[in-house]
Amino acid sequence: MLDMRRRELLSLLGGAAAAWPLAARAQQAARLPRLGVLLLSTPQADPQMETARRALRDLGYVEGHNLAIEYRYAEGRPERLPDLAADLVRLKPDVLFVLGGDVTPAAVKATQTIPIVFTSSADPVRLGFVASLARPGGNATGITLLLDELASKRLELLKQAAPRISRVGFLWNPDHADNELPEAERAAASLGIELKPLTVRGPADFDGAFMAATQARVDALYVVSSRLTLQNLGRILNFAAENRL
């Protein structure tokens, strides 16, 4: 998956690099191409940032040598993102690079002219980032990892691996824009599985979701990928192991 992301980042950032001013590339000492980066966490804590740096190096761009990167990061506080995005826009970078569907709205609202490259596991069309996946339009484009169509396959594989399961806890964040729940519900009905939605909107919701899963006596967990579930993957795995799910 990381290799795929890296290839896609190469393509996207390569296209963005083509828009960087020719004068800047010809006179790097006077004006380096400038990339603005907006993060929810920090450059050190976000693993995608290192993938992006490697992709840029593969394109011949090295931070501090022939590329200037301006970072703005919210340190886990999403309420700071609009101000940080506005601050980046004031610097007039050639391209904005935004990591996460929960971060992208701040960048999209901050500028309609600076090119934006985003990564998101949510649906960028539903969130209003782009007009369509085929023709994004506007100034934003990016990578999206939608697993809606794989929902039925994931449940099928789960049923094959554990034929006796009848109740599956569906751990998801309803604020994450995707269609995975309805797809999973359709598949569950055909497989004779009862799907138990377990809602988490923040870290504090996991204990309640785990309690609901225990009370419902679920046989397995289906975890929808999002920043929230990935950041709490250790807790999810511990719960699954303790309850032999």
Report on this model:
This protein is of the alpha/beta class and 245 residues long. The protein folds into two domains: 34-144, Rossmann fold; 148-243, Response regulator (Rossmann fold), CATH 3.40.50. It has helices at residues 2-17, 22-26, 47-58, 81-90, 104-110, 151-161, 180-191, 206-216, 227-231, 233-242; strands at 34-39, 68-73, 95-99, 116-120, 140-144, 167-172, 194-199, 220-223. The strands form two sheets. Strands 2-1-3-4-5 form a five-stranded parallel sheet, with helices on both faces. A three-stranded parallel sheet has the order 7-6-8, sandwiched between helices. Helix 7 links the parallel strand 6 (167-172) and strand 7 (194-199). Helix 4 packs across helix 5 and helix 6 (151-161) runs parallel beside helix 7. The radius of gyration is 20 Å and the shape is elongated. It starts with a helix and ends with a helix. Mean pLDDT is 80; it is low at 1-6 and 18-29.
